Amino acid sequence: MLTIHRVHGVRRAPDGAPDPGHAVVVSGDRIEAIGPYEELYERYGERARVRDWNGTLAPGRHEPDGAALLESAYHPDPREADDLGTAPLTGDALTALGMTDTRWGASARRGVQRLLAIGTTSVSGPFTRPAVRTAVARSGLREPSGPHVLAPGGPADFAVFAEDGRCLVTVLGGRLVYRGR
Predict the structure, then answer these.
(1) Integer Cα distance of 94 and 91 in angstroms
(2) Is the Cβ–Cβ distance between 25 and 159 less than 8 Å?
(3) Tell me, which fold does domain 2-60+148-179 have in CATH?
(4) Exposed, middle or buried by CB within 10 Å (0-12, 13-18, 19+), for 167?
(5) Delimiting residues of CATH 2.30.40.10 domain(s) in the chain
(6) Residue-averaged pLDDT of the chain
């Protein structure tokens, strides 16, 4: 299925200026086209769904400390907030938890959700804990293979950011994996 992501502008590179009025067409896990919305709608509109986002579409964030964030900290379950709080636990607090593989996996899934909520589209490893490695792999996050730029034929990994910098949407492999409220 084709999806046209209509936004205020498209930033093709992390440090580039946005192209106002542009949109991105996604087919499966790849970017099909980037260009002015009207032109893309005329070409693909009859067979594509249109998603309107109130922001700028960009390659997303790379998290160089992905392994440290997910393997050296426990991300509490919301049901544990009364006892553990909501911030990641490290050091002595982490040691006191008596972590198991199951707990590491659940923590990593919550940590990945935090990363997606800020527009992260790639992370650096290596991930040595099997449960963490599995959580990262299943999320769609991957290590970058070079500079992350948006281009036709490239991976449909991007985020949409509001004017105030909040992440509105994160897309990995063409799948909507985070949507802000």
Answers:
(1) 5
(2) no
(3) Urease, subunit C; domain 1 (2.30.40)
(4) buried
(5) 2-60+148-179
(6) 94
| Residue that is written with structure tokens 């004017």 in the block | 163
Distance of CA 121 to the CA centre of its chain: 4
Q: What is the pLDDT of residues 51-105, one digit of tens each?
A: 999 999 999 999 999 999 999 999 999 999 999 999 999 999 999 999 999 999 9
CB 112 within 8 A of CB 133: no
E strands in 2-161: 2-6, 9-10, 19-20, 22-27, 30-36, 48-52, 56-58, 61-63, 120-123, 158-161
> Phi and psi at residue 2, in whole multiples of 5°?
-90, 140
CA atoms within 13 A on the CB side of 83: 8
> Contact, 112 vs 70, CB < 8 A?
yes
| 33 CB neighbour count, 10 Å cutoff | 17
CA distance 102 to 27: 35
